[in-house]
Prior knowledge:
heterodimer, A: 802 residues, alpha+beta, Phenylalanyl-tRNA Synthetase, Chain B, domain 1, CATH 2.40.50.140, Phenylalanyl-tRNA Synthetase, Chain B, domain 3, B: seven-stranded mixed sheet, 41% helix
Amino acid sequence: xxxxxxxxxxxxxxxxxxxxxxxxxxxxxxxxxxxxxxxxxxxxxxxxxxxxxxxxxxxxxxxxxxxxxxxxxxxxxxxxxxxxxxxxxxxxxxxxxxxxxxxxxxxxxxxxxxxxxxxxxxxxxxxxxxxxxxxxxxxxxxxxxxxxxxxxxxxxxxxxxxxxxxxxxxxxxxxxxxxxxxxxxxxxxxxxxxxxxxxxxxxxxxxxxxxxxxxxxxxxxxxxxxxxxxxxxxxxxxxxxxxxxxxxxxxxxxxxxxxxxxxxxxxxxxxxxxxxxxxxxxxxxxxxxxxxxxxxxxxxxxxxxxxxxxxxxxxxxxxxxxxxxxxxxxxxxxxxxxxxxxxxxxxxxxxxxxxxxxxxxxxxxxxxxxxxxxxxxxxxxxxxxxxxxxxxxxxxxxxxxxxxxxxxxxxxxxxxxxxxxxxxxxxxxxxxxxxxxxxxxxxxxxxxxxxxxxxxxxxxxxxxxxxxxxxxxxxxxxxxxxxxxxxxxxxxxxxxxxxxxxxxxxxxxxxxxxxxxxxxxxxxxxxxxxxxxxxxxxxxxxxxxxxxxxxxxxxxxxxxxxxxxxxxxxxxxxxxxxxxxxxxxxxxxxxxxxxxxxxxxxxxxxxxxxxxxxxxxxxxxxxxxxxxxxxxxxxxxxxxxxxxxxxxxxxxxxxxxxxxxxxxxxxxxxxxxxxxxxxxxxxxxxxxxxxxxxxxxxxxxxxxxxxxxxxxxxxxxxxxxxxxxxxxxxxxxxxxxxxxxxxxxxxxxxxxxxxxxxxxxxxxxxxxxxxxxxxxxxxxxxxxxxxxxxxxxxxxxxxxxx
Amino acid sequence: xxxxxxxxxxxxxxxxxxxxxxxxxxxxxxxxxxxxxxxxxxxxxxxxxxxxxxxxxxxxxxxxxxxxxxxxxxxxxxxxxxxxxxxxxxxxxxxxxxxxxxxxxxxxxxxxxxxxxxxxxxxxxxxxxxxxxxxxxxxxxxxxxxxxxxxxxxxxxxxxxxxxxxxxxxxxxxxxxxxxxxxxxxxxxxxxxxxxxxxxxxxxxxxxxxxxxxxxxxxxxxxxxxxxxxxxxxxxxxxxxxxxxxxxxxxxxxxxxxxxxxxxxxxxxxxxxxxxxxxxxxxxxxxxxxxxxxxxxxxxxxxxxxxxxxxxxxxxxxxxxxxxxxxxxxxxxxxxxxxxxxxxxxxx
Lengths: 802, 348
């Protein structure tokens, strides 16, 4: 809602600049989007009187005008507007002026004819097309006949006003009006505000004889109408047009403008019907019937819903209540009798109707938030009075009232002790009651208790906490002390799981991977890839795009998307990890289980090539090294084993391993299947994904001290030829099992399957380290153990010791 | 020539030879020649048999003296030469220390994670627990128990991804208020918690909107919690995240689950409060929403609002990161361009 500074000043004696007023409103009441002064940025734009108009010799639409701009000599200006005419007062941008969008106007020639300036349309001096009166949309604007040539145009057009654009929160419907805003400002500035009240001059016949209304009061708690006859439709006076366009509304004619003006002033939406277009003299407020249709004022067709509230005559709907009137019974040229409607419609119905028909209007916005239910008749009377004064209308006697349920004002009890206890302040009873009274609330005090009667217009205030907010904001949040909570001590510490998750991130970062955060909503295809367990998908009912429509059941596809994004930008070396949730849903359940996972992906090289080291493309074993180091960091208690898995459709069948801890599969690692990599538009990429929750839940090894032996270790190397299908794991397991009491470690140091090895065989070489913690090992003992293990290798694995 | 003279001559010659030796091999050769079993000194000493018994010790002592001199000279020469060899080697080993160091693999935490961790650590230090809740939430917790019944107009403020009528992607971390309040045993002490996490809104992604972003919810409920405590807590948060020179101001706002409700602004980063384009000339930037927990929220969670009360706040780490580092497009946080991710590495 754009509030006019000048309008406010008519009621409130303020001595503050508009920007300061806006700041105060923002600090105390509602957010301010903007403060604008329409004339800002404009220069040398004046009233011109058109002395003569001649056709341009070389153009079929241009005119050569002589324009009096209050100087000794008239200016010659070439103008292309179709509605230019001799005798008009017009808007002239003088040579050297600035018009909208900072455009500079210079002397020029138009098809050979000198032109000193420009005759302007309202749009050209910054008006939005939406607010320009229809008659002037396609041409220049014509100023009132009494405007003085040479005067700046701004005051004639209300452009020196300042407009404060309020971003009103849903609870403050009262701020969608000048009167509502005035009540708040009166409290903010602690000044009295004098609002005017209508006095209607009635004439003619009793309305009851001419109109009857039949209202379902669950749909409309108040429904009131007045009838005004013998109206003379005409453009509104300038002051009224200015009020409207400065609030962002287009002036139409005096009758329609009055209803809009009353809405801005009181916050009460009104509707004016052409009474002569009613079928019969009865008006109904009801829900729409199946199959009913309505063409609204904006000339759109609507199929009405049975939950829409409509205003209807005997024949059918004539308005979508609280949203928009119908075209048929609207005010048009020739209208002389008007039925003015002032009502309250049930907000929920209005909200849904506005959504259903995609018609979010000034009226629906106000009904959704709630209007001042104590001011419905006053707004109606004010409109009738204006129609009498500005359109010579004859206000018929009385109003018809179809329903009149005005709620009782809220009465709330509050203690001063409570106020100070919650706000942390030391306010006095006088301060508190004064604040509440300045807002127009009635306050009765008894000992520590305030009994506060809240005017009906403040429909957001029901409970003591609501009053606390009023007190706090008017008192000023700046004046609140700043303290920290006191009371019983509480422990602040991370849980074991939170510590492990943090340790996971630190570990992987230490191993060279950057943390990524990808989207959890993905495509249906990607959600289902790299699955670690069977699950139903979880889909959004109304996604915005197919790209983010289904909840992920793996983290890897997100990382592949990230890598693709990098590759497309020529970043070829990418190492990422992500810690986040995947969503598994059981058939028949609406809600998925959320499981913490950890995943990594590397493409290109982990270490960039440098002057002293060549780039080494990532391979399976580098990724395995990272996973192994990470699992070692997490100290899971149990053997970690890697078992080939050729069955994951998204993974390279020969380069993928399941990761097992103590025989339980907790994840996998390997190379992404080349055809999947191609689909994602990424190069060779190695990935892993682990069930982080499983790692959290597993028993862990404790750190413990192990004496470092003072006695020397003895090493023996062993090289052997084995069949290709014998794995390193088998050999190591055997050596460890049969290595004897002093075997400390087995380390693979060479793998060879080149030309010097018979076909179907490979050569592996290990270093075995022996040590005794308590004495120096005797060479013989080592030799004995070594020979024994060599023999076992020959016997059990068919190894040929070399 | 007397034996003594012979020995003197030997010394002269020996010292000269030692001096002339140019490498360790030479030195060794000279040593063997002079002091070896077949060397001249041994020979001279052998000739002592012919001397008087009285002369023998004198000559013997003299011979020993000469041997010691020569040995010392040899050792000295050897050390000199060794030092020279070492110096030559060190000279040869000299490198250009301005060549770049060998790269190491090093990953970085995501900038949003850094901010979340910082907030967590701050509140852990003040005795808060860190709790996390489900991202797929029930309408009941996300809205209804947050005092947003079905058809509440404020639901329009948060366009929601629904999965079914009652299940949705949480639009805020606030449902953790309801979930925690329901469970908390106040006889064990006050409730002080923060809850970081991912939230979702039905938005089209653009530079300032993301359908996925982060929030950190904060909640303190006890018997004597004041709005001044809220203000002080938010001040501590702003100082921790941005620095001591940042001020906090509160403005009225509206959230269905708090009353009074406020929005908190902090001093504009860009201009330090003077007013600039970033802060629309106000000197302030809106950073979070907060308020005193609405009695209905307490009641619905089974907490007596006449006894207990407190404050809640919701912080947006994405917005913090954008403000703090001048990130101009929120999508950067979720596209994971490595060149973006590795910009936030300063830990000192």
